[in-house]
Every structure is written in C-alpha cells, then in structure tokens.
Amino acid sequence: MKTVSFISAKGGSGKTILTATIADFIGNLGKRVLLVDADGSTNGMTLFYLKEILNQSNDNANKYGVLQDGFAADIKNFTEISNGIYFLPATYSFSNTENYSYDLFEKHIFDLVNNYRNQKEPEFDFILIDCQAGADKFSEIVTKKNVTDEVVIVSEFDPISAAGIERLKGLFHKNLTYERTWVLLNKVLPELIVSSSDFLEITKYLPPVAWSSEVVKKYSRKEIATDFKYGNEYTFNIVKILNALFSKELGSELKKWLDERNEILRKPIMEEVFQLEQEYRKLELTEKSSLKSTLMPTIISASAIVGVVSSLISFSSSLGISDSLQSMLKSEILIGIIASLLAAFSLSGFNYFRKRDSIRSKHKLEKEYLKNQMKELRDLSRASIDVILKSNRNLHNKH
After folding, report:
1. Cβ distance 245 to 154 under 8 Å?
2. SS (H, E, C) 297-317
3. Which among 155, 185, 235, 251 is least buried, having the fewest CB atoms inside 10 angstroms?
4. Alpha-carbon distance 154 to 152, whole Å?
C-alpha cells in the first residue's frame, strides 16, 4: 500500500480536485483507493463529495470523520464514492474543524494509515490525503514520514506560488526531503508549459497539468474532467503524473491502458486516410474517363470515312466501267481516305492533348492537396499521443 499527501503553499491551486481526479483514474484501473479530507479549514473535498455523502445520509448518524471525536480506522466510517473508491470526510456533522485538536488529528491520521499499512493483505492499494493549504499544523502532520510515503506540492505557475513552495520546503524541511517530495504545476495554459528547469531548481517535478476551458467547465460542475474510456489531453496528463508517481505500483496497468488508447486514437486517422485515398482514385478515374471521351469523335470519324469509302468502291464496281478506270478511281479514293484520316487524327490528337492538359490542370491542385493531407495524416498516425491530442485540440479551436 502507498500513501501520498497533497499539500499546497496557498489556496486556489486546484489541489483538491486534482487529488480526486487522480483517485478516480486509479479506481478505474481496478485498484482500491481511500481518499481522506484532512483540510481543517475548508473541508474542501467533503464539500466536493457532498452529494455522495448526503445520498448515504441514513448511514451517516454513527459515522465519524478524521477531524471528529469518536473516529476509528474502520471502513464503516467511509463513504463509497464508486466501485473501489472510498472517501473519509473531515467531518460528518459540519462542525467547525479549524480549531480541532492537533494531537487528536495526528493520532487519527497515524492510526488510519498504519491500520491498513500493517495488514497482511491491505484493504486499499492507495491512500491519498488532501491537506489544508498553507503551512499550518495540519499540513505539517500529514507530511511526516510515519504518515505518508511521498508528498506532492501542488502549485500554480507564478512567482508568488514559487516563493510559497520554497517557504513550505523551508518550514517542513525535515519531512520535505528531495527523495520523497514532488512539485506539481497545475492550471498551466498549454502554450505556457515549460521544462522543469525553468521554474525551480533542485526539485523533483511531475509533468505539469495543462488547463483548458473544458477542464474548467467540468470542475465548475463538480465533475471529473478525465475521459477514461477514450482519453483526452487532460487525461493523458494525469496518466503521465501517475506514471511518475506510481510506476512500480501501476506500471503494467498504465501501459495496457495507453496501448488500448493508442489504437483508439490512431484508428480515426487511418480511416480518414482511406477516405482521402478513395477521393484521389475517383479523380484519377474521372481523368481517364474524360480522356477516353476525347478519342471517340476520331474513332467515329474514321469508321464513317472507311464506311463511305467501302460504299464508293462497291458502287464503282457496279457501274461496269473498265478495270483501268476502276483502279484509278480506287487510288484516288484511297488517297482521299488517307488524307481524311490524317486530318481527322491530327485534329483529334490536337484536341486530345489540349483537353488532357486542361483536365490535368483542373485536378492538379485538388490532387496535390489530397496527397499533402494523406502525408500529414500518415505522419500524425506515427506520432506520439501528445502530438495527436495537440493536433485534435488545434483542429477543435479552429472550428
């Protein structure tokens, strides 16, 4: 079992919803997760899951949150959010928890973690603790090494937040050591995502979380913004974070999920390539059909000339004129045929090449466009998932 605490230097970093999102994805992978609201000031995660808590109100009378007297590390005190995901609120009674006893809270959180950590077959694979913003005593307690395996400092991407991170690391320096502390930049606009070295030094960074209007809309409705079934840009951001934090625990599950989404994302691209290939073939067939039609007048003219000549020769034979005169007539007729055929073929050849150039010129730009589109799509189908998702986002923004 692994325990991770999520803290932040100041409010508004998106720590609570990010913790819930990570738990949701892990649960969808088939793992069991316990979420804990250790925010004595706002009880933020308790409010986020208020609907789920109230839906089980009949069972809440004898339940106790981690910031309530009477709490015990028992699954009966948890609220089931979805299959495999359980939630321990700060309180079930909506009392003021800001002044709750630090000693009692520390005992509760220590007993909770160690109860499941010491089980031979732990009931939960992960415990994720959402803590109060700032450097208060509640936050200090949940960063202790006997409580949590690792700590994630969630921060926005600005100078004040950067200073706040350094302040937290200074105040909690015994617990926020390099090997067990991560910084996660949240709410970063996609175009502003930079490398870790551009922010703070001597710090372990998780992949930054891109922020978009779609994510904001989802969160404003108290909804998780990930798409576990098909995947989206935000979802793959979360996967990168999980891969960095839990590669040992979730490596095979994440790889399987990524492989499946790889196929899902690339399939529409190849289907579009196939459609473009069909359009290209239609243009080529139209060209061939048009060129064949230019030869028909010549064939018809030649057939008519041959037919007329054959009739003339038969007619001259029926007149009963001398052989020498017939021979002369036939020679003149043949010369006329050859001249007529040459004229017909010359004219038709001229028309053929003129029309061919016209037809090719007419379709040239369209064929070049289709070829370029097919090349771009084939290149995209071989690109990384990040590139494919970025391309989809740019296309969506254009429309």
Report:
1. no
2. HHHHHHHHHHHHHHHHHHHHH
3. 251
4. 6
Q: Which of 341, 361, 362, 350 is nearest to 294 (CA)?
A: 350
Spatial contact of 245 and 152, defined as CB atoms under 8 Å apart: yes
In eight-state DSSP terms, residue 85 is E
Asked if 138 and 5 touch (Cβ cutoff 8 Å), the reply is no
| The length of the chain, given as a count of residues | 399
Burial bucket for residue 284 (CB in 10 Å: 0-12, 13-18, 19+) = exposed
What are the residues facing 217 on neighbouring strands?
none
Range from 119-123, 137-141, 181-185, 196-200 carrying the lowest mean pLDDT = 196-200
Would you say 234 and 354 are in contact if contact means Cβ atoms under 8 Å apart?
no
Buried b (16+ CB within 10 A) or exposed e, 364-386: eeeeeebeebbeebeebbeeebe
Question: Starting at the edge strand that comes first in sequence, how are the strands of the sheet with 85-88 ordered?
Answer: 79-82, 85-88, 33-38, 126-131, 2-8, 150-155, 181-185
Q: Which residue in 388, 389, 376 sits closest to 276, CA to CA?
A: 376
Cβ partners under 8 Å of residue 109, min gap 6: 36, 38, 66, 129, 141, 142, 147
Give the single-character DSSP code of 188. B
Q: For residues 10 and 302, what is the distance between their CA atoms, to the nearest angstrom? A: 91
CB 96 within 8 A of CB 42: no
Q: What is the pLDDT of residues 110-133, one digit of tens each?
A: 999 999 988 888 899 999 999 989
**pLDDT tens, residue by residue, 144-158:** 999 999 999 999 988
In angstroms, the CA 183 to CA 196 distance is 10
Contact between residue 346 and residue 274 where contact means Cβ atoms under 8 Å apart: no
Provide φ and ψ at 109, rounded to 5°: -70, -35
CB 206 within 8 A of CB 173: no
**Is the Cα torsion angle 62, 63, 65, 71 positive or negative in sign?**
positive
